[in-house]
Fold:
Amino acid sequence: MKFLKITTVLLLFGVFMTSCNTVKVATDYDQNVNFNQYKTFAFFKPGIDKAEISDLDKKRILRAIETEMTAKGFTKSEDPDLLVSIFTKTKENINIYQDNMYGYYGWGWNPWYWGAGPNTVTTTSEGTLYIDFIDAGKKELVWQGMGTAALAQEVNRKQERIDEIVKKILEKYPPGTKK
Structure:
């Protein structure tokens, strides 16, 4: 029975750790746009100012986007082809693990068992980052990427986690490329 408890706890821990490390990504885009025409970008300040996160996190996100865009061959420009905007959503997830097998041994009644076993309650923050690419000339949205993941709470891990989320989202740009 002890083996079963330990196995269950390890399995739940593994699932929890795996779920924290994954980034769920979705994209949408205008199928009539030739994405090869875009070579330069700039950040769309009015859109970024509306994002409801701290200025420090905005800077972290913008740094990560700039790094990924530069790696894709884009150049930051005062007269861009693409405007880049962001917005975010967050929610709290509460995870409860209830050990109802505490105190049981085999079949039948246990005289030393009184009530439920130990419970473990954890909370995680899950964030969704939207990255919008807007045609600078037409002022129309041409591509949107969305990434949802558990957020890092430690300051020294925040930039690393944001870099990972942005990288996963921008792997899907331009449309039609596979990684």
